[in-house]
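Notes from hallway chat w/ T.B., transcribed later so I don't forget. T.B. wanted the structure written out for a chain they're using in a teaching module, and asked if we could keep both sequence and structure tokens in one place. Agreed to drop them here.
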Amino acid sequence: MIIDKLENAELYENVHPGFAKVVEWLRTVADPDMPEGRHDIEGYEHLCRVYKWDKTSRPYDETPMEIHTKSIDFHFVMEGTEILGWEPIAEGEQAIGEKPEDDIIMYPDRNSQSFHLEQGDIYLIWPHEGHKSGCHFDKPYHVKKIVGKLLLE
């Protein structure tokens, strides 16, 4: 996992062929008021997909961990704050659910670490890393963010 600020994104442009293009798109096209949903980066559909989220946070203790097998997740907090939970998922760990159409496999939270993220923060999560994003501990809050899927296939 990598957590940093968007202003430092160039440090990580070699992690994936589509990373620099997503960063460029974030800086030139992304807008907190753009519609929710999928937004394609022309010419890069085979490398990455981006989604705009505009959501109320979820209770941390009630949210399972998830992994993705086909992409590296790249999150950018546009407005608001969120709590991110992270822990590696052990090989052979028993899944508690899945959403194959969204490349999500869910696992119980065994002993996750939490991170408080704010406007301007970015983070990258690799396929073997369990995570739960958009969470809160005490009371719900609102977050606007971009989630990039850096495709591995």
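Follow-up for T.B.: The CA atoms of residues 59 and 136 lie 5 Å apart. Might be a good example for the class.
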